[in-house]
Amino acid sequence: xxxxxxxxxxxxxxxxxxxxxxxxxxxxxxxxxxxxxxxxxxxxxxxxxxxxxxxxxxxxxxxxxxxxxxxxxxxxxxxxxxxxxxxxxxxxxxxxxxxxxxxxxxxxxxxxxxxxxxxxxxxxxxxxxxxxxxxxxxxxxxxxxxxxxxxxxxxxxxxxxxxxxxxxxxxxxxxxxxxxxxxxxxxxxxxxxxxxxxxxxxxxxxxxxxxxxxxxxxxxxxxxxxxxxxxxxxxxxxxxxxxxxxxxxxxxxxxxxxxxxxxxxxxxxxxxxxxxxxxxxxxxxxxxxxxxxxxxxxxxxxxxxxxxxxxxxxxxxxxxxxxxxxxxxxxxxxxxxxxxxxxxxxx
Length: 347
Description:
By secondary structure, this protein is an alpha+beta fold. It has four domains: about 15-90, Winged helix-like DNA-binding domain superfamily/Winged helix DNA-binding domain (Arc Repressor Mutant, subunit A); about 100-150, no CATH class; about 160-250, SH3 type barrels; about 260-345, Alpha-Beta Plaits. It has twelve helices and eleven strands. Helix 2 packs across helix 4 and helix 5 (about 100-120) runs antiparallel to helix 6 (about 125-135). The longest helix is centred in the N-terminal third of the chain and has 18 residues, at about 30-50.
């Protein structure tokens, strides 16, 4: 028989580390409480992903007999661990009920896969969050999904940096950091009131948006991977109720909005038409011509030089199937990029 479960809740966690308490008054969690917590974590783990007893021992840092007693206790509570079909050594616990219907499950699944693709490789916070969300998915796709969440080779974002951004955002505290823009000197001592975190649709990278109060005194967008030496200050701030992320990003092709967006007109050849008409492009309108070509208008944020920096890689990616018609300065820049590529690589 397993050890009895605790009948009383443990002391509040803040009591365990209260610096004002004497050593004699500090409450420490009992063995019974440790086991109860391990049982809850074990149940959550096996509802999320099938594992062998050896993997469970390594996960919880206990021996195989302890894991077997815990599994027996969970079984007595109505959560029997079963051999996973196709892999008898792996155990799983069927999750009771389902929070989502089929279309909702697909939407949640898609969100998790997108989070996986943009997440820092191996980051424990992303992995844990994805596993927790996946628990509400139907069993038929939950395990396949979790098996696919492996190191994706994405660029590393240090966990401590991610934690500091999250803390500053959730607690409404000022975030101080240095920033390394592309091909420019480091901006030192930025102080940001974090308003919003956005994932770019173009590169799936996380960006931090907020009021940068020390340098320019305006709402700015910072790429998380370029932020250095982050420090969460004690000073808090009041979020701006007038800040509307939808409005701020309304003209962004990715994450960079603009006070003076521009409209870029592009002609696409007939062999590119079917891909365009499949949709999924923001701030765009299309008109099909009799010959099958398409005239498109894209509204996009522009930088201080008047160029839609986030839109240009998309247009250049179409190669000879796209011709930028207007405005003139965007067409000239687009032609210049093509001519430079030809000059460098045409042999």
